[in-house]
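From: lab user (bench 3)
To: helpdesk
Subject: output format question, protein + molybdenum atom

Hello, I'm new to running complex predictions and I'm not sure whether the block I got back is the full result or only part of it. Here's what I submitted:
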Amino acid sequence: MAGRRTNLTLLVLTAVAFVSGALAYSAGTAWGRPVTVLHGVVGVGVVLVAPWKGLIVGHGMRRRGARAWASVVLALCTIASVVTGVLHTTGAAVHLGPVTAMQVHVGAALLALPLVIWHVAARPARLRRADLGRRELLRVGGLAGAALVAYVPTTLLGSDRRFTGSRQRGTDRPSAMPVTQWLDDDVPVVDTRAWRLRVGDRSLTYAELIARDDRVRALLDCTGGWYASQHWAGVWLEELLPAGGRSVVVRSLTGYSRRFPRSDAGRLLLATRVAGRPLSAGHGHPARLVAPGRRGFWWVKWLDSVDVDERPWWWQPPFPLT
Ligand SMILES: Nc1nc2c(c(=O)[nH]1)N[C@H]1C(S)=C(S)[C@@H](COP(=O)(O)O)O[C@H]1N2
Ligand SMILES: [Mo]
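Helpdesk reply: Thanks, we reran it on our side. This is the complete output you should expect:
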């Protein structure tokens, strides 16, 4: 493979890896499966193209010497991301000391992102008409086929996983379910006698909420790579909301918040209990949101307020920032 074609192929693979990775993080329901598979296949594709890239890098290093440090960091990030992707997928090592393989996977990719942009801007690969011809399509098809074939065994090794890539931990045993924060929230200690949940201009006490007994069995699937299914109880959000509005914003005492379509309120449970017992501090005491079909980061813990307004639900960062 010529150098220019190798670089173009890697660029396309990298772009698809970033987009499918971000989409796989958003996916909660079964439409996500092809996205996760695509993400894995693209990762294998990067590994297959790596030897050719190695040749190009060898030439470049001899010419540029020490100035190539940013490229070295980019290469290390890419290797770290691919290796941890394989470790998580196959289950070979889900934990790496204090961090998970998944955290390193995403962290390395996020670190690589600005470097990729810099790298492409510094050495733009020009597209030629022949790049979209029959021969190139055959070549790309061959690469895709080989990547797919190589990807299948890794999914068999990791066959106890959900389609999102997550492994079961603590189903029907809330005490065995991990306590997870998106980034840097601390578990707050809440005095339920003083605590109030504000919903619009209503103020609800803990006693009022725990008296409700709407139930749902729902599966929490954290992007950190685990999932658990539990029996949750509380009150459907719809029962508490005023009519109208386009979206509902659910806020935590910590400031963490997510916005939902108003039409989802009938499927969102404001939970005070799990497996028949009040929530533990770590799992959201006094009350948390249960958002069936959505990834864990939507399940706001330690509720403080709920408001309806006219903004569209997507008027928020795609992922939380705290
Ligand atoms: N307030 C608040 N709620 C939060 C988070 C957070 O950081 N802060 N993390 C979310 C994420 S990423 C997940 S996976 C679930 C984890 O719920 P658990 O700790 O009860 O397992 O809580 C969600 N709710
Ligand atoms: Mo999560």
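A quick orientation on your result: The chain is about 40% helix and 20% strand. Let us know if anything else is unclear.
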